[in-house]
Design brief:
The chain is α+β, with helices and mostly antiparallel strands. The chain has 2 domains: 203 residues, Multidrug efflux transporter AcrB transmembrane fold; 82 residues, Alpha-Beta Plaits. Helix content is 68%, strand content 10%. The strands form 2 sheets. It has a 4-stranded antiparallel beta sheet. Helix 7 runs antiparallel to helix 8. It starts with 16 loop residues before the first helix and ends with a helix. The C terminus is likely disordered.
Length: 323
């Protein structure tokens, strides 16, 4: 049978766990610094803007319409094709310009199309405004959705495994989401509802990979109860490494095709997933597995410390009587 990585391989993943954990802490802290200094480039969904439904000639596509509007200095564009291609209808979404009335953006789009086309060749069929307050509510609810999903996964892992596993899984997922946010801040890419949906999908995807590693750790512990937790985790990661790489690679290639050929609308969604797959694979191998070791040692230290305290309390009255 062909194996990308032999199950009996013995790569020392946990030996350098302090380096990987330290690197992840640095990246998370850097993301928070960027978040409070530079901030995310929020899209129309979160900042407010204008939505204009237009009909243009059948010879026009989204690329042509975008090119014309960008020449007219319309910024923050998102263009969606609507209905039957024969109808040649598009939804134009443009970001709010600071200090300008949003209705001005609607008039500006009409003027730009009027300069390119004759009367009757185009029609503004509807116009709507997405207010900043509605965008702020969406932003709040979106981040609450991420928080609640992490809590639900924490409970699931705690029930399926035990205390040693759940915090590591949550920290790995938190790590993935934060670093993807950091990449979007660094690149200046627009952060909208589709990107938020990608991060929520990433949380589920990355958790699945982590669960596979944890399940193997639990099985290996049962078969080798006398082995150290470091040996068990390292063996488990090595045994699941081939599966992890093949799953991540095949998913990455599929999403990369979506990013390359899916068009402007799907590009941020696919980009977020591409980054998340890479970061999620890294966290499953290096972060989630390392946290099992850290929490196992913490639990053992707590048991030893608790045992000493109980003995001291029990011996204290006898020592007093002796005096």
């Amino acid at each position: 049978m062909f194996h990308l990585i032999r199950p009996d391989s013995n790569i020392d993943f946990v030996g350098k766990r302090k380096i990987w954990l330290g690197l992840s802490v640095v990246m998370i802290l850097a993301t928070f610094v960027l978040l409070f200094t530079k901030g995310l480039n929020y899209g129309i969904d979160f900042t407010g803007g204008a939505e204009v439904k237009v009909r243009v000639p059948q010879t026009w596509d989204t690329g042509k319409l975008r090119s014309v509007l960008e020449k007219g200095d319309v910024t923050g564009l998102k263009i969606l094709a609507l209905g039957d291609p024969k109808d040649s209808e598009f939804m134009i979404r443009t970001q709010q310009q600071e200090g300008k009335d949003l209705n001005v953006a609607v008039k500006k789009i009409g003027d730009i199309l009027g300069a390119e086309l004759k009367a009757g060749e185009f029609e503004i069929k509807a116009a709507d405004i997405v207010g900043p307050s509605a965008g702020g509510l969406l932003r709040k609810n979106g981040f609450l959705a991420m928080f609640y999903s992490l809590i639900a996964i924490l409970l699931y892992v705690a029930i399926r495994f035990d205390f040693r596993y759940a915090p590591g899984a949550i920290l790995a997922l938190f790590h993935d989401a934060v670093i993807v946010l950091g990449i979007f801040i660094l690149t200046g890419k627009e952060f909208d509802l589709t990107v938020l949906a990608a991060i929520l999908a990433l949380i589920g995807y990355s958790n699945n990979d982590t669960i596979i590693v944890y399940d193997r750790v639990r099985e290996t512990l049962k078969m080798n109860p006398s082995a150290s937790i470091e040996e068990v985790v390292n063996q488990s990661v090595n045994q699941t490494l081939g599966r992890t790489i093949m799953t991540s690679l095949s998913t990455f290639v599929s999403v990369a095709m979506l990013w390359a050929f899916g068009g402007h609308v799907l590009e941020p969604f696919a980009f977020a997933l591409m980054c998340g797959i890479v970061v999620g694979t890294y966290s499953s191998v290096f972060i989630a597995s390392s946290m099992v070791i850290v929490l196992t040692h913490y639990r053992e230290n707590q048991k030893r410390t608790g045992g000493r305290k109980r003995r001291e309390v029990k011996l204290a009255p006898e020592a007093h009587i002796g005096i």
